[in-house]
């Protein structure tokens, strides 16, 4: 049935019911106790672990392997770049010589 047939007092229409202060305080205390117990357990677990300096972390090992690969290929890559630079310079010298001699490009 339509809502306008339901008898409501205008003062209680948009009223929010708050929980009592004592109940809210008990709930907060229970939450704090649960959080304290959980953080104490986490601290104990963290203290049990043996701490390493991070030398054997998987990402660090991967990075070292990648650096080794790059270092191994570095002379080959540098030689290839040097050859390309020389080829470009020789090509530019040949083109410049043609331009000086009056030849077309």
Tell me what the structure shows:
By secondary structure, this protein is an all-alpha fold. Helix content is 68%, strand content 0%.
Q: What is the element string, with H for helices and E for strands?
A: HH
Structural class assignment = mainly alpha
Uncertain ranges: none
- The radius of gyration over CA amounts to 39 Å
Report on the biggest sheet.
none
Give the DSSP E fraction (strand runs of 2 or more residues): under 5%
**Distinct helical segment count:** 2
Overall form = elongated
Estimate the mean pLDDT confidence. Answer: 76
How helix-rich are the residues, as a percent range?
Answer: 55-70%
Number of strands: 0
Termini distance? 93 Å
Question: What's the short version?
Answer:
The chain is mostly helical and 105 residues long. 68% of the residues lie in helices and 0% in strands.
């Amino acid at each position: 049935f339509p809502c306008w047939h339901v008898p409501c007092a205008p003062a209680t229409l948009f009223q929010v019911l708050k929980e009592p202060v004592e109940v809210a305080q008990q709930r907060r205390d229970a939450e704090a106790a649960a959080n304290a117990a959980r953080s104490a357990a986490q601290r104990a677990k963290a203290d049990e672990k043996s701490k390493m300096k991070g030398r054997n972390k998987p990402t660090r090992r991967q990075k070292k392997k990648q650096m080794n690969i790059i270092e191994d290929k570095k002379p080959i890559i540098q030689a290839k770049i040097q050859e390309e630079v020389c080829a470009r310079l020789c090509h530019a010298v040949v083109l410049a010589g043609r331009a000086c001699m009056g030849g077309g490009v």
